[in-house]
Write a structure and sequence with these properties.
By secondary structure, the chain is of the alpha/beta class. The chain has two domains: 257 residues, TIM Barrel (Alpha-Beta Barrel), CATH 3.20.20; 107 residues, no CATH class. It has eleven helices and 18 strands. The chain starts with a helix and ends with a helix. The C terminus is likely disordered.
Length: 400
Amino acid sequence: MAVSRREFITSATATAIASRVVTGTVSAKPTTDARIVLVYDDGPVTDYTKAFPVHKEEGVPASIGIVSKWVGTDGSESMSRAATADELSEMESFGFEIMSHTREHTSLTSFPLAADIEPDDTRAYPKGPHASHPFHHGYEVEIYDGNKSVTRKIVGSGRNDDDDRYMVLDEPVGTTFDADTARERLTPKTMRYLLHDSKRTLESYGFEVDNLLAPFDQFSGYAERFTEEFYTGVANAVDSDGINPRGKVDPYGIRRDYFIEYTDWETISGELDTIAETNALGVFGAHTQREEVTPEKIRRMIRAAKRRGIEIVTLRQALADAGFGPETATTTTTTTNGTTATETATSNETATPTGTRTVVADSTKSSGDESLLDRYGPVGAVGCVGAGLGAFWWRQNDDE
């Protein structure tokens, strides 16, 4: 009987984690119904060299957000290089969850404008510390103000003499937009492309990809409309404390905090106390490429959770137990040398055939010669009803 990759991963995860010997005297056995998810961003090699060894020693999983176009490359300027597919596969086989972090670490939200736009202008100035759309050449952007909208393609970017970032558009805007009321965002066509292509590319390596990690901790109702077509949940929909009350988990409204950067240990300890006392779900993140994120501080977080009787799980497991995503039933708990692992069994799932899989490192093509970017136009095969009939509603009810 064929076994699906998900069934293999959940079974192998329980076996691998249960076989680890936890160093020190902190027991991994949970004594509450509280849980936390540790999430690492971007997919740098330091996820593999810095975080993964600690998690193996402590016998606990994590969820990692991977920028699909960076796999096996130099990645971004913030890292020495990105993790390879083999390194990610080893982490997944142990029990880590692979999540999408979009195709090119692209912001999924809208931005206000820093300057008015005149009809002859071919430049637009988005405003905000993470207004990264100008650097994504070839993507379509929509400029809108609630009464009218214009769609143009980004063909270039730069900075003016005042160091303001701008995008170069393929043709003049053709109308006037007031910076006080107008915003810019990626079009529905582009949103679907970058969300689906990332998932498709990661799955071509053989990974199970159910969830999204939003770049720059930016997510909105507009982004949710497209994200829910491809992903079960978003690990960082709300950049706040990491406490998600029990029984009120919203897969597209998950709160995440950082447990090393941008915070202090007293704050994180208090959040862990609340999570343990209320049996909540905690979600905490870190960028392992940052110097301040050390193996010692990662271990401190893991052991602090263990001392409070909090179980550490993946986001996939947390959402499945809350009734979202693939149906997963918790079965037994096995303890080996003080390490507890929860085994899972997946049902109602079609087994995938075994065989050789072609790896597509940058899957800009779908079946035949059709571009995914071309496929996801406003009347594309996926979400055409939402993009077509709902376009007016979206513009009038944008909650960003």
